[in-house]
Design goal:
Length: 362
Amino acid sequence: MTQDLIALRHALHRHPDISGDEGNTAHMVATALRSTPADLLVTDLGGHGVAAVYDSGQPGPTVMFRAELDALPIAEASGVAHASQRPGMAHLCGHDGHMAILMGLAGTRPARGRLVLLFQPAEETGAGARAVLADPTFAALRPDFAFALHNMPGLPLGAVAVAAGPASCASVGWRIAVRGREAHAAFPETGQSPAPVLARLVQHLASLPVSTATICHLNMGAPAFGIAPGQAVAHVTLRAASDTGLEALEHDLRNWIADNTGGLTLDITRHDHFNATLNDPEAAAHVEAARDELRIEKAAFNFPMRPSEDFGAFSAQAKCALFFLGAGEAHPALHDPAYDFPDALIAPGLAMFRAILARLTG
Ligand SMILES: [Zn+2]
Ligand SMILES: [Zn+2]
């Protein structure tokens, strides 16, 4: 069983798809699911999402487990035999492993209630969970409980970290476009250069606590020597432990920018918004109990995880818990070109999901 799941993981790893373009991966997943007697198989859910439902026919809760379909637009440098065959794209967040774990539950019919396996698109951009929730088809899958795991380099291999409350941060990307006016480099005073505004902005953002505002991209003017610049663009990622914290951060930054335009026009657009993930106490307690039943090591973890996770979007509909499965203390970080999901996590990940399901539907 585990060998089949490892083989599936390697096949998914060889053929990664990036967010919003997961048609091939979704097809591989749906094909694998068709070999199990699902009571309902949904495709094209919120984009390329796939879901399988296993219904006991008995009253009881609907329990959903979620994995992600998407890979990243980063070239892989892991050197493994099953490395990505698509240039510039790779499963460097371990979503291939998460899918393999979820596939281990395919065909499981609970004693009561329903099991839903959701293979969600576009997690990396924060668009996928919301798109799945907005799809009218999701009404037929609506869970009472929803669980997801994410592998976590830095934690001991196979150890589990979970807590009630904040599990992952809220974040949003701001594209800040500064419009001035170009001029001859000999007469810069006749134009309007974005350089002073940009310099003040960078200094202001750098004065905020670490990870609160990360400057991801800066671009100004043309790569020339005869033109004083008239345009600039900055991409800044804002991050906070809660949705209200992120709102306050955005509010403050908007006010700061309004006071510091230097007479230039600044346009702000928002991208890749992620809600914070808040673990429901009851759902988190089931994860903890499953870990203890399985005698899996408890990992110390500084909650919430800084990277965002769009799984938080499901907490409006269900009692949710996101937990972390250690990928090894010395394992390359998520999104590192050398990262590859540890196959040794498939068995404990599946055991955790099975134990959680048994607690709720057994
Ligand atoms: Zn990721
Ligand atoms: Zn991920």
